[in-house]
Design a protein that fits this description.
Rossmann fold; 2 domains; 13% strand; elongated; binds guanosine-5'-triphosphate; binds magnesium ion
Length: 288
């Protein structure tokens, strides 16, 4: 962790949740953010636990923002996911936060992105955001994460049609979890067919989250996607930097040349050597 202790970070996150701290809503998130979405019970939390384990073994500090359904009466979060991930409770380099969706549509809480920004600033990377398992409505997640993973299980086969208009379209990686069950290959075929029909190229990874099978392959697919998006944005940043450098250089040369033509340049140099006030000289140059 950089400058914040766990307690300070927890306090900051509580302020974000309670609407007392807004600056994190617009902060850029430097860490890689991974969204895990899919119908109820497909294995999102089990998969998230496996990914935490994987990244910890690689030496990363990992954070999870898990969305819990909130009671319309209390507005509070259930601690289900946190209990499921309790094995990491004593690891100081894992930070797990459950947030209440507070009735917001889209499977993520309004403050999830801002919380991810605070966790990123505190040095956690990657940050995993698990959505509610509500089925069709989990589209918001793709707006706040870099890599969206849509999890299916063989039993969700008949739901693909219903999901088509929604979460089918937001995935960067598809996971068929519970591939220890016999109908897993049929599920993969069905997804492949859907993807071919819609002309999308998306990797499908088979996992058994309960045993850890396929997690390495999933992590590699995540890495490939990360490199792709980070290199695109880096290319853009580099291009902007280059354009700015060239512009700066050209504008400087143009201004210097025109000042030299009018002898203002030589006058300014002479005055600097004489010990005249630099601010006055600059003002004179800029107004000439
Ligand atoms: N057979 C089998 N069971 C699994 C696998 N992964 C998870 N499960 C079981 O599936 C059940 C649901 O797993 P969770 O990880 O809680 O699923 P979830 O998608 O987070 O559920 P919600 O958050 O309630 O939507 C649990 O009983 C897990 O033990 C798997 O690969 N194979
Ligand atoms: Mg869960």
């Amino acid at each position: 962790m950089t400058c914040k202790s766990r307690i300070q970070l927890a306090r900051l996150i509580r302020k974000i949740e309670e609407g007392e701290e807004f600056s994190y809503y617009t902060k850029e998130i430097a860490s890689h953010t991974i969204g895990i979405t899919g119908s109820g019970g497909v294995g999102k939390s089990t998969l998230t636990s496996r990914l935490i384990q994987y990244y910890r073994e690689k030496g990363n500090r990992v954070a999870v923002v898990a969305t819990d359904p909130s009671s319309p009466f209390s507005g509070g979060a259930l601690l289900g996911d946190r209990i499921r991930m309790q094995q990491f409770a004593t690891d100081p380099d894992v930070f797990i936060k459950s947030v209440a969706s507070r009735g917001k549509q889209g499977g993520v809480a309004l403050c999830s992105g801002a919380i991810a920004a605070a966790l990123s600033e505190a040095g956690y990377n990657p940050i995993i955001i698990e959505t509610l398992g509500i089925g069709q409505d989990e589209i918001d997640i793709s707006n706040i994460v870099d890599t969206s993973i849509v999890v299916f299980s063989p039993k969700t086969g008949d739901q693909i049609q219903a999901m088509k208009a929604g979460i089918m379209e937001i995935g960067d990686i598809f996971v068929v979890n519970k591939s220890d069950l016999s109908s897993a290959d049929a599920m993969v075929s069905q997804l492949t067919k859907e993807l071919t029909e819609s002309g999308r190229k998306i990797e499908i990874i088979k996992t058994v989250a309960s045993t850890g099978k396929g997690i390495e392959q999933l992590a590699q697919a995540i890495e490939r996607h990360k490199l792709l998006i980070f290199s695109v944005s880096r290319k853009k940043r580099n291009a902007i930097y280059q354009i700015e450098s060239i512009l700066r250089d050209r504008i400087y040369s143009y201004i210097k040349e025109s000042l030299q033509k009018k002898k203002y340049w030589d006058d300014a140099l002479r005055d600097i050597v004489k010990g005249c006030d630099i601010t006055d000289i600059l003002k004179r140059l800029l107004s000439s």
